[in-house]
Structure formats: C-alpha cells, structure tokens
Amino acid sequence: GEQVEQRPPHLSVREGDSAVITCTYTDPNSYYFFWYKQEPGASLQLLMKVFSSTEINEGQGFTVLLNKKDKRLSLNLTAAHPGDSAAYFCAVSVRSNYQLIWGSGTKLIIKP
Amino acid sequence: DPKIIQKPKYLVAVTGSEKILICEQYLGHNAMYWYRQSAKKPLEFMFSYSYQKLMDNQTASSRFQPQSSKKNHLDLQITALKPDDSATYFCASSQEGANTEVFFGKGTRLTVV
C-alpha cells in the first residue's frame, strides 16, 4: 500500500529565512495531496490541497510543489515568521479508496 | 462555533478503568474518523466510518471500540485503560471522496494515571 515519508522531523530556521518540508510517496495512483498545519496546543487545519494536475500552488507566504515524476510533494515557506512555528503534516489520498495516508509530521520552529 | 464537538476536552483516568470520548459533527459529513496523537506517534489513524459503518480499523487493540448511534456521532470507548493510552484523541470528519478536506475537532487530551 501507499507509504508516505516526511522529512525532516524537526526544523529550526531564523525569522526571515525559508524552510522546506518534503514528503515522498510510493503509489503512482496517488490522487490528491494535502498540507495541514497544527499550531501548538491546537488542532490540525488545512493549509492547502493540491490536485494531481497541479504542480505549483501558492498561498500566503508559502508554495506547494508537486513533482509527480519523483513522487515528491514539498512545502516551501518563504520569509518565515514566528506565526509559522507549528507542526506540519502532509497527507496523500489514494485513488482506490480515497483513504488519506499521513506523513509523520515536521515540527518547525522559527527563531527570532 | 466549532463544527466538530469533542467532549471532554481533558480527561484523567485511572489505570484499568473505562472511558468514552464523545464526538459530534455538524458539517453534514458522511465519513468520520478517530486519530491519536502522542509524543511517540505524531499522528496515528485509528478508525474510519462511513454512513455509520466501519470502513477501516488500524488499531490493533480491541480495547478501543467506536460507537456510532447517529449519523453525525462517533464516540470512542476505551476499556482497561493503560498509561500508554495517554494521548490526545482527535475526531475528524469529511465528505467521502478523494479531494475532500478532513476537518478535525479540537481533541480530547487523555491522561491515564
């Protein structure tokens, strides 16, 4: 079945710097891709969802890249600020049963 | 207003006891889930239900039993509690399908002493 590997598990960057979190997946039939953000002590909230036909999606202060050839999904935070300190999880939807397979999370800390 | 209500927010239980975690969603979703989060496992899928029927069970222990009395309810009964069960339990829901967002409740933080 689908396996999703997320790296790195911990990431610390200075305010204003960029941060990159990557997920690789195994199932070529993976269909939809999600990034969730979990602020300290809070629940998970959707940051962005990417469809298989989309390669680049931009949000406020971040970009999601999907490379289907390499089966790689990345979240690039540009000019990180303290509000970006959180845990980030990727999730991949498998076409066969629409089940979400989750990455193991990245704890991001933004240092002043 | 929160659309997925989990009760209680915090729960302390004695080893060997039984507790029920409550979850109700008011999003009109047909799929509901339980996830667990602890220091050992950042996010662990436990169960999924669709139209009140169990679709997937990734929990090895039968001490965890979901209960769905209504379409928008999915409670989690945990028996013979162990300290290792200490975690935050998140209820979630979605409209079944490949491209739909999963919405999470605020969680119940369970501590077993």
Polypeptide structure, described:
The complex is a heterodimer of chains A (112) and B (113). Chain A is an all-beta fold and 112 residues long. Chain A is 0% helix and 60% strand. Chain B is mostly beta strands. In chain B, 0% of the residues lie in helices and 50% in strands. In chain B, strand 7 and strand 8 form a beta hairpin. The N and C termini of chain B lie far apart (33 Å). The chains are: A mainly beta (112), B mainly beta (113). The A-B interface holds A 31-32, 34, 42-46, 49, 51, 87, 89, 91, 93, 95, 98-100, 102, 104-105 and B 42-43, 45, 48, 56, 90, 96-99, 101-107.
Question: What does this entry show, briefly?
Answer:
Chain A has strands at residues 4-7, 10-14, 19-25, 30-38, 44-51, 56-59, 62-67, 72-77, 86-94, 100-102, 106-111. By secondary structure, chain A is mostly beta strands. In chain A, the strands form two sheets. In chain A, strands 2, 4, 5, 9, 10 and 11 form a six-stranded mixed sheet that branches. Chain A has a five-stranded antiparallel sheet with strand order 1-3-8-7-6, with no helix packed on it.
List keywords for this structure.
heterodimer; A: 112 residues; six-stranded mixed β-sheet; 11 strands; B: 113 residues; mainly beta; seven-stranded mixed β-sheet; four-stranded antiparallel β-sheet; globular
Question: What is the topological layout?
Answer:
The complex is a heterodimer of chains A (about 110) and B (about 110).
Chain A: E1 4-7, E2 10-14, E3 19-25, E4 30-38, E5 44-51, E6 56-59, E7 62-67, E8 72-77, E9 86-94, E10 100-102, E11 106-111
Chain B: E1 4-7, E2 10-13, E3 19-25, E4 31-37, E5 44-50, E6 53-57, E7 64-67, E8 75-78, E9 87-94, E10 103-104, E11 108-112
Parallel strand pairs in B: 2-11
Antiparallel strand pairs in B: 1-3, 3-8, 4-5, 4-9, 5-6, 7-8, 9-10, 9-11
